[in-house]
Specification:
456 residues; alpha/beta; FAD/NAD(P)-binding domain; nine-stranded mixed beta sheet; 12 helices; binds flavin-adenine dinucleotide; FAD-dependent oxidoreductase; FAD-dep_OxRdtase
C-alpha cells in the first residue's frame, strides 16, 4: 500500500514543476498559497486587469495542499452555514451565492471542455445515504431545510431504499437524498489545468517558496523579500503555520483510502452509478466516489485534529485509520473485500463559524480568503472571482456576495482547542453507536449537544 506521498491523485499523475523564488523584487499582487484559491485568484485578477504583474508563492509544490488530495466532488452543495450568512446579508444574498455556486460548477467544466483540457470530469450527481431511522429523519429534516431555501425537486429529492438500489446497492440503506448537482473530477488534473492556464497567462509561479512573514506591502521568503501593494492569503487549512495566525482557521484532518481496482462483475454487483459521489449521514461522516480507473475512494475517519494546529507528514495515515476506512467499505458492501492500495490525508480550513470568508483590508492591502470547511473545490473558484473584483475595485455585484465579510472570531487557545475538537469527534462516534442500537428515529442527545458546542 502507498501511504501518504500526497495521496492517490498525485501518484496517478505527473508532478507539476516550477522554480523557487531566487531573488527579491516586487510585483503588483503577491499571492500566498498554490492551491485552487491562490491560482484561481491569480487568473481572475489577470482577466480583470491584464496589466498586473502577479506572483504566486507555494511553500511546497503546486497541489501539495487539499487541492491536490481531495475527494473530487466539484459540487454546488451550499458551503458554510446559511443562517450565519443570512444574519449578515439577508436571505436573497444567500440564495444568490447558492445560484452562483451552481453556475461556477458548470463554468469550470465548460471552460476546460472548451479548451480540450481533461480534468476527469463526469457528471454523476451526489447521493447521501441513510442507514438507520435517525439518519433518515435527519435527511428528511435536511430536505425540508433545502426546500425552505428554495431548492426544488430538480436539485434535491428523497428516495426510498428500493429506488436507491437502482443506483447503488448499499447494505441496510433505508433511503437517500439524491441530487444531480455534482461532477466527479480528478482533483490533481483540475489543479494542473489551473496551473497551466496561469502559466500561459504569464503569471509568475514559484514553488518551494515558503512565505515566512507577511506584512503590509511585503512578504518574506526566508532571506528574500517580495514587495507588493496587494497581498492575498490563500493558505486555507495551513494558515495556522503563518506567524501570529495560529487560531484563525482550524486545520481539520481528513483521511482517505483508494481500494484495489474492482472488476466489472464486482461493479455490477454493487451497481454503483459510475460517477455519483456518495456520502453518509452518520455524525462521523464519510464520503467517496468511483475513480476513473475503477477503485472506490472513501474518506472521513482519522485523527480529526492535531495538538497546536499541527499538520500531517506528507499525508501519512496511521494503520488504525486505514482499517477504519476499509471497514466502512466492507460495511457498505459486505463481502467485497476491497482492501486499500492507497491511503492519505490532508487538511481543510475551518473558521470558527464554519462559513467561508473573503476579508479585504484595503488599509493594509491584505486580502484573506478561504474557510470552505471541506467543500472548496467549486467554492474556491467563486471566492477567487469575488476576491479579484474587490482587489481591482470593480462594482460587479460579485464583490458583495455574503462571503465578503470580516474574518470570524478566532478559535479557542490550546489545550481547549484540542480537547474541544477531539472531544466532539469522540462524542459524535458515541452518538452513532447509540443510534445504531436504538429503535428510536430521534437523533442522539449527545450529537445535539455536540452540535451546539461546535457552533454548527
Ligand atoms: C481529504 C480531503 C477531501 C476533500 N474532498 C473535497 C471534495 O470532494 N469536494 C470539495 O469541494 N472539497 C473537498 N475538500 C476540500 C477542498 O479540497 C479544499 O477546500 C480546497 O482544496 C482548498 O483550496 P485552497 O487553495 O484554499 O487550499 P489548499 O489546496 O490547501 O492550498 C493551500 C496551499 O498553501 C500552501 N501554503 C501554506 N502555507 C504557505 C506559506 N507559508 N507560504 C507559501 N505557501 C503556503 C500549501 O502548501 C498549500 O499548497 C477536501 C479536503 C480534503 C483534505
Amino acid at each position: 500500500m502507498i501511504n501518504g506521498e500526497f495521496g492517490f491523485w498525485a501518484n496517478r499523475n505527473e508532478p507539476i514543476r516550477a522554480d523557487p523564488l531566487r531573488e527579491s523584487g516586487r510585483a503588483d499582487v503577491v499571492i500566498v498559497g498554490g492551491g485552487y484559491t491562490g491560482l484561481w485568484t491569480a487568473l481572475a485578477l489577470r482577466a480583470a486587469d491584464p496589466s498586473l504583474d502577479i506572483a504566486v508563492l507555494e511553500a511546497e509544490q503546486f497541489g501539495f495542499g487539499a487541492s491536490g488530495r481531495n475527494g473530487g466532488w466539484l459540487s454546488s452543495k451550499p458551503v458554510g452555514m446559511r443562517r450565519v450568512l443570512a444574519r449578515g446579508s439577508g436571505r436573497e444574498a444567500v440564495l444568490d451565492v447558492e445560484r452562483r455556486l451552481l453556475e461556477t460548477m458548470e463554468t469550470v467544466v465548460d471552460e476546460f471542455a472548451a479548451a480540450g483540457v481533461d480534468i476527469g470530469a463526469e457528471r454523476g450527481g451526489w447521493i447521501q445515504v441513510a442507514r438507520t431511522a435517525p439518519e433518515l429523519a435527519r435527511l428528511q429534516s435536511s430536505l425540508a431545510g433545502h426546500r425552505s431555501w428554495g431548492l426544488g425537486e430538480e436539485h434535491v429529492r428523497l428516495v426510498d431504499g428500493d429506488a436507491l438500489r437502482e443506483r447503488i446497492d448499499i447494505h441496510d440503506a433505508v433511503g437517500a437524498l439524491v441530487s444531480p448537482d455534482c461532477v466527479r473530477v480528478d482533483p490533481f488534473l483540475l489543479l494542473r489545468g489551473v496551473v497551466e492556464r496561469a502559466r500561459a497567462a504569464g503569471i509568475r509561479l514559484y514553488e518551494r517558496s515558503r512565505v515566512t512573514a507577511v506584512e503590509p506591502g511585503a512578504v518574506r521568503v526566508g532571506a528574500l523579500e517580495l514587495r507588493a501593494q496587494r497581498i492575498v492569503l490563500g493558505t486555507e487549512g495551513y494558515t495556522a503555520g503563518l506567524a501570529g495566525r495560529g487560531r484563525e482557521m482550524l486545520p481539520l484532518n481528513s483521511a482517505m483510502i483508494a481500494t484495489r481496482r474492482l472488476d466489472d462483475a464486482e461493479w455490477a454487483r454493487i451497481g454503483w452509478d459510475p460517477a455519483a459521489g456518495l456520502s453518509g449521514s452518520a455524525h462521523t461522516y464519510f464520503y467517496g466516489q468511483r475513480t476513473p480507473d475503477g477503485r472506490i475512494i472513501i474518506g472521513g475517519r482519522g485523527k480529526p485534529y492535531r495538538f497546536g494546529s499541527g499538520f500531517d507528514d506528507r499525508g501519512q495515515v496511521d494503520h488504525g485509520t486505514v482499517r477504519a476506512l476499509e471497514a466502512i467499505v466492507e460495511d457498505l458492501f459486505p463481502g467485497l473485500g476491497a482492501e486499500a492500495e492507497y491511503a492519505w490525508c490532508g487538511v481543510l480550513g475551518v473558521p470558527r463559524d464554519w462559513t467561508p470568508f473573503i476579508d479585504w483590508d484595503s488599509g493594509s492591502g491584505i486580502l484573506q480568503l478561504g474557510g470552505y470547511a471541506g467543500q472548496g473545490v467549486t467554492a474556491a473558484r467563486l471566492a477567487a472571482d469575488a476576491a479579484a473584483a474587490l482587489l481591482t475595485g470593480s462594482d460587479d455585484p460579485i464583490a458583495r456576495i455574503p462571503w465578503v465579510r470580516q474574518r470570524p472570531r478566532r478559535w479557542e487557545p490550546e489545550p481547549l482547542r484540542w480537547i474541544g475538537a477531539n472531544g466532539l469527534y469522540r462524542a459524535y462516534s458515541v452518538a452513532d453507536w447509540v443510534e445504531q442500537r436504538s429503535s428510536s428515529p430521534r437523533t442522539s442527545v449527545i450529537a445535539k449537544v455536540a452540535d451546539v458546542i461546535a457552533g454548527r
